[in-house]
């Protein structure tokens, strides 16, 4: 760590702290720490700061806004970083995701699936995708209703460039632990339903949990947690800038 900048050293220390908390959460429920992947959420983190983070061990980045992700991926093209777009995507921006992203975690419409598949064909690429499910029942959130997720998963079969890897959700933005855990449990129930009714669809991944609730998510079965502020510190803008359609004010820390 002595070769790192002060900021890089702080980021490295924060990553290690998050990983220790993840391991502790795994231990509480008898899971192996390696069963959960950490996706650092880098939205609003400048590209040059990500260079310091790379020196500290960062290898993957999660971004909500595709334009921001695209610009950073171009600015950091010399680094072997993996990019995940984790926020809502308009179909007219599918072409950007198809060019540079390794994963897209907010798939919730067949129209978008078709647009991505078509652009991926042009680019000669494939894309790992997670189906976004609205487990909180809030109208302000994107994502499929749990009751239609299995049908949607089956309908993705024709899109050969899309590689379904799992499900993603945003829990209710609340300090109520039981309410948050209920969202995570609902995603697990959707996973079980898809496994039974659409066994050919891989939904092994459960992307759930952010800076304020990732330990609860791990205890409820998360295989990937999206953590930003616990690694990079507070962000300057309100939550609805990063999560369009959020509505209301979050009562606890965002990713």
Overview of this protein structure:
The protein is an alpha/beta fold and 255 residues long. The protein has helices spanning 6-28, 47-55, 66-75, 94-100, 110-123, 149-155, 177-197, 214-219, 229-232, 239-242, and strands at residues 37-40, 60-63, 82-85, 103-107, 127-132, 162-168, 205-207, 224-227. The strands form two sheets. The chain has a six-stranded parallel beta sheet with strand order 2-3-4-5-6-7. A two-stranded parallel ribbon has the order 1-8. Helix 6 (149-155) links the parallel strand 5 and strand 6 (162-168). The longest helix has 23 residues, at 6-28.
Top keywords for this entry?
6-stranded parallel sheet; 15% strand; 8 strands; alpha/beta; globular; disordered C terminus; 255 residues
Strand count: 8
Output the strand order for the largest sheet. 2-3-4-5-6-7
Residue share in helices? 40-55%
- Based on CA atoms alone, the radius of gyration comes out at 17 Å
SS field, number of helical segments: 10
What is the secondary structure topology, with strand pairs?
Elements: H1 6-28, E1 37-40, H2 47-55, E2 60-63, H3 66-75, E3 82-85, H4 94-100, E4 103-107, H5 110-123, E5 127-132, H6 149-155, E6 162-168, H7 177-197, E7 205-207, H8 214-219, E8 224-227, H9 229-232, H10 239-242
Parallel strand pairs: 1-8, 2-3, 3-4, 4-5, 5-6, 6-7
């Amino acid at each position: 760590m002595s070769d790192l900048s002060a900021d890089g050293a702080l980021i490295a220390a924060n990553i290690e702290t998050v990983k220790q908390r993840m391991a502790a959460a795994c231990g509480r429920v008898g899971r192996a720490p390696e069963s959960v992947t950490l996706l650092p959420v880098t939205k609003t983190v400048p590209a040059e700061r990500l260079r310091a983070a790379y020196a500290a061990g960062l290898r993957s980045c999660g971004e909500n806004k595709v334009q921001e992700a695209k610009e950073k991926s171009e600015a950091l093209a010399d680094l072997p970083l993996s990019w995940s777009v984790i926020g809502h995507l308009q179909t007219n921006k599918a072409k950007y995701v198809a060019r540079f992203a390794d994963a897209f975690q907010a798939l919730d419409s067949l129209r978008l699936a078709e647009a991505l598949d078509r652009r991926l064909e042009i680019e000669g690429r494939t894309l790992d995708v997670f189906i976004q499910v609205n487990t909180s029942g809030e109208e302000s959130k994107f994502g499929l209703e749990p009751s239609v997720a299995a049908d949607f998963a089956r309908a993705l079969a024709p899109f050969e460039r899309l590689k379904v890897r799992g499900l993603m959700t945003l829990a209710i933005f609340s300090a109520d632990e039981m309410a948050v855990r209920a969202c995570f449990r609902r995603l697990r129930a959707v996973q079980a339903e898809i496994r039974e009714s659409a066994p050919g669809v891989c939904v092994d991944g459960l992307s759930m949990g952010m800076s304020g609730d990732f330990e609860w998510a791990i205890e409820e079965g998360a295989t990937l947690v999206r953590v930003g502020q616990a690694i990079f510190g507070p962000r300057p803008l309100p939550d609805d800038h990063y999560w369009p359609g959020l509505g209301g004010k979050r009562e606890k820390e965002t990713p």
